[in-house]
Amino acid sequence: MEDRLVKIHRVTKVVKGGRIFSYTSTSICGNKKYLIGFGRGKSREILESIKKSYLKARNNIIKLKIYNNSIPHFLYAKHSSSKLYLFPASKIIGLICNNIVKQVLISAGIKSIFSKIHGSSNTINVTICAIKALTFLK
Q1: Helix segments in the chain, DSSP class H
Q2: DSSP reduced 3-state for 103
Q3: Rg of the chain over all Cα atoms, to the nearest angstrom
Q4: Residues 6+ away with beta carbon under 8 Å from 103
Q5: Between 87 and which of 63, 71, 114, 122 could a Cys-Cys bridge form, CB atoms 3.0 to 4.6 Å apart?
Q6: pTM
């Protein structure tokens, strides 16, 4: 299984004595053979949050039904204010999509697809959208 770190976010909490920093990290895990997982970790240290997100991603693995390295039909998913459209494509075309969606599709093992994002292009929402859309495969 291959782990990919999508985003690290620093959160600051201001208290009477000063500032408290904590980190949230988002990661995906896939074997490039139609298995994919998503995880988020929170901690006061960067390495701890990354380890937690990798562990959660490995525990939340989903098996996808993909044929000929592409999707068999049109897919749509919405999370928060992000909307993602995935269209099937021929083998010659390759991955035509956002960098975040491309990371998810590469780790899932999909090699040819079109995609379009409407609304917010927030990295965390888009990764959740992409994984949600891939779970709708029949």
Answers
A1: 46-59, 99-108, 123-135
A2: helix
A3: 16
A4: 4, 6, 28, 127
A5: 114
A6: 0.90
